[in-house]
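TICKET: design request
STATUS: open
ATTACHED STRUCTURE:
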């Protein structure tokens, strides 16, 4: 990973990323993080490249050392209404809105974003493996979303959300076929490979 947290030369700078875009159930969760310019940690990388053990270690380290951080979400209903791309961007905007300090520049993972309060921004493909502030945001988005899905699993244990976090695993699809959908499923997503009517 390129160890850069202040890519633009403007400070403070926020990194933002989301988790859960490809899930069948649950919200999309975004995080925004402003880190000190000299923040480094050997475990920090794209959350998909970091083990659960290391993600859980990193979460409090990031939260305790960040100048400011915030996590926000868009619900399944909002995803169905807006589409997943727009919902993901809205969740990022909500996370940015919750920061205690207004950034002078925003680093965004991916290649799609919408302007936020006229603050300059840069989209970065694979930014979560290139820039520490985006990597930190990816860790917070992932860990907070996983914790939420573990709580929802208690209400709906058949779907295995404590293990698959709502992603389209075989077990998840088998549970949908057997028990139908829940209020936490995204109605506009293809829940089964051979889609059937799951909603009244």
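STATUS: resolved
RESOLUTION: sequence designed for all positions
ATTACHED SEQUENCE:
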């Amino acid at each position: 990973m390129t160890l850069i947290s202040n890519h633009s030369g403007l400070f403070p700078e926020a990194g933002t990323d989301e988790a859960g875009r490809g899930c069948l159930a649950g919200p999309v969760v975004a995080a925004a993080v402003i880190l000190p310019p000299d923040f480094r940690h050997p475990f920090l990388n794209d959350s998909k490249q970091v083990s659960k053990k290391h993600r859980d270690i990193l979460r409090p380290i990031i939260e305790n050392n960040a100048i400011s951080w915030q996590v926000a979400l868009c619900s399944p209903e909002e995803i169905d209404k807006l589409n997943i791309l727009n919902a993901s961007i809205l969740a990022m905007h909500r996370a940015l809105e919750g920061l205690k300090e207004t950034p002078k520049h925003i680093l965004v993972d991916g290649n799609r974003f919408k302007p936020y309060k006229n603050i300059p921004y840069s989209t970065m493909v694979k930014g979560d493996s290139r820039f520490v502030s985006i990597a930190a945001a990816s860790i917070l988005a992932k860990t907070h979303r996983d914790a939420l899905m573990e709580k929802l699993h208690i209400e709906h244990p058949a779907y295995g959300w404590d293990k698959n976090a709502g992603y389209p695993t075989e077990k998840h699809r088998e549970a949908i076929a057997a028990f139908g959908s829940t209020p936490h499923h995204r109605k506009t997503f293809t829940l089964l490979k051979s889609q059937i009517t799951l909603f009244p």
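CLOSING REMARK: The first helix runs from residue 52 to 65. Strands lie at 13-19, 28-34, 68-74, 105-109, 121-124.
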